[in-house]
Amino acid sequence: MPSRRSLLRPLVAAVALAALFGGSLASGAVEAQQAPTIFAAASLTNAFQDIGKLYKEKTGKDVTFSFAASSALAKQLEAGAPAAIFASADLKWMDYTEGKDLTLKATRVTPIGNSLVLIMPADKAKPVTLDASFDWLAFLGADGRIATGLTDSVPAGIYAKSALTSLGAWDKVQPRIVGSESVRAALALVERGEALAGIVYSTDAAIAKNVKVVATFPASSHPPVEYPFEIVKGQDNPATRAFFDFLTGPEAKVVYAKYGFVVK
């Protein structure tokens, strides 16, 4: 009669094999489902979506995007939100994530830039010259408002405040500013005619249907509009690296140029 030990051996072997192959299958399923999540400034929406589609066509691999103001994305990273890459619309919020040990400074690249423009609804647009002599209150009239990003946190708003301060207009204009949670939200206010004017990036104005650029702020009036990209700490793996490199490669640069970014 077979011993109890000999009867148990096939059962133990079967359990071990099930665990081995079951674990391998589960691991493979997770790897197949995972795609790098990219946290990106709202002004990058159209360009990054095009680049993501191009990457899918070239590699068969997906990426996931989350677009918002750079300030909001940095705070989400700080709160533990999962992401593989952070693409900011200014240096401040990238420096912030570095300071919190959330992103890898050694991976930083700054491949593109932008310009700051004044826009108006297309049916009210009138070209102006932005310099220290420009009469903002006459331009705005009795109750005109200017939409831009929140001036204490959203990059577009921070650049706008810097430019208006440099031109000696901030104290006069500040009560007329409508701060929005992102540059795209500010753009929408102007598109709908809910604000007389807006201060946004030239690339945002380029994709809008119902607005026109009436002036470009002098480059000397604000810090350069730059977009640093970094890999998030703990996410420097082959899948992340592959897309990170694609974001700064020749095919991506063609997309950036199409949308009006300054390619470096």
TrEMBL record:
Keywords: Metal-binding, Signal. Gene3D superfamilies: Periplasmic binding protein-like II. It holds the Pfam family SBP_bac_11. CDD domains: PBP2_EcModA. Residues 1-26 form the signal peptide. SUPFAM superfamilies: Periplasmic binding protein-like II. It comes from the Bacteria. Belongs to the bacterial solute-binding protein ModA family. This is Molybdate transport system substrate-binding protein. The lineage of its organism: Bacteria, Pseudomonadati, Pseudomonadota, Alphaproteobacteria, Hyphomicrobiales.
